[in-house]
């Protein structure tokens, strides 16, 4: 009986401890058409970046050690020869032009995510680089998100953290594009 009580107590303790450490989500909607939105999910502790920046959406980690910028592209605004992959490549080249000592850490590889939700699946294509900017070393994680349920738009995530903080933020950098979805208005 004591073992059973101890087991129940430990189970309750670990589930409560796990629940307290998990960050809640906040949602940001971005209109891509009259009938559709892209919904982004950020950790509740992250804050929107105010002020001037080139992104449609930008968020900072609580201590400013990581940043996520999101470009949203509507296909109607692009020429027929422009592809999501070509825009991702251009975005990477643009960022690389501002860095020194650039090293490709992980090659691009498309990952098809099938979801059971109403928004269908998506394809995520990511690449990870290290580089220096103004004397500091950073990881740069680029992700292209293409949505099966909407061919009207796609998103490119440009995410960065210092080398020392990378392991603390990698999961967040992978989850935000994976949790992004198309929502009908």
Helices and strands, with pairings:
Blueprint: H1 2-21, E1 25-31, E2 36-43, E3 47-48, E4 57-60, E5 66-74, H2 84-96, E6 100-113, E7 122-133, E8 136-147, E9 150-162, H3 166-179, E10 181-184
Antiparallel strand pairs: 1-2, 2-10, 3-4, 4-5, 5-9, 6-7, 7-8, 8-9
Signal peptide: 1-19
Protein name: PsbP C-terminal domain-containing protein
Organism: Budvicia aquatica
Mean pLDDT level: 84
How much strand content do the residues show?
over 45%
Largest sheet: 7 strands, antiparallel
**Cα-to-Cα separation, first versus last residue:** 55 Å
Identify the CATH architecture.
Answer: 3-Layer(aba) Sandwich
> Which percent range fits the helix content?
25-40%
Order of helices and strands: HEEEEEHEEEEHE
Instruction: Tell how many strands the DSSP assignment holds.
Output: 10
Judging from the principal axes of the Cα atoms, what is the shape?
globular
Number of domains: 1
- Multimerization state: single chain
- Number of helices, counting only DSSP H or I runs of 4 residues or more: 3
Organism: Budvicia aquatica
Protein name: PsbP C-terminal domain-containing protein
Signal peptide: 1-19
Keywords: Signal
Primary descriptors:
single chain; 185 residues; alpha+beta; Protein Transport Mog1p, Chain A; 7-stranded antiparallel beta sheet; 3-stranded antiparallel beta sheet; 3 helices; 10 strands
Quick synopsis:
This protein has 185 residues and is of the alpha+beta class.
């Amino acid at each position: 009986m004591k073992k059973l009580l101890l087991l129940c107590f430990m189970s309750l303790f670990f589930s409560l401890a796990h629940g307290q450490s998990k960050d809640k989500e906040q949602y940001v909607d971005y209109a891509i058409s009259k009938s559709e939105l892209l919904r982004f999910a950020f950790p509740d502790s992250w804050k929107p970046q105010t002020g001037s920046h080139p992104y449609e959406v930008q968020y900072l980690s609580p201590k400013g050690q990581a940043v996520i910028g999101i470009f949203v592209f509507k296909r109607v605004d692009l020429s027929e020869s422009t592809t999501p992959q070509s825009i991702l490549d251009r975005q990477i080249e643009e960022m690389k032009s501002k860095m020194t000592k650039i090293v490709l850490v992980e090659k691009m590889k498309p990952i098809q995510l099938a979801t059971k939700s109403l928004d269908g699946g998506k394809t995520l294509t990511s690449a990870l680089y290290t580089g220096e900017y103004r004397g500091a070393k950073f990881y740069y994680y680029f992700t292209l998100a293409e949505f099966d349920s909407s061919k009207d738009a796609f998103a490119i995530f440009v995410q960065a953290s210092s080398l020392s903080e990378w392991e603390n933020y990698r999961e967040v950098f992978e989850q935000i594009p994976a949790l992004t979805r198309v929502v009908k208005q």
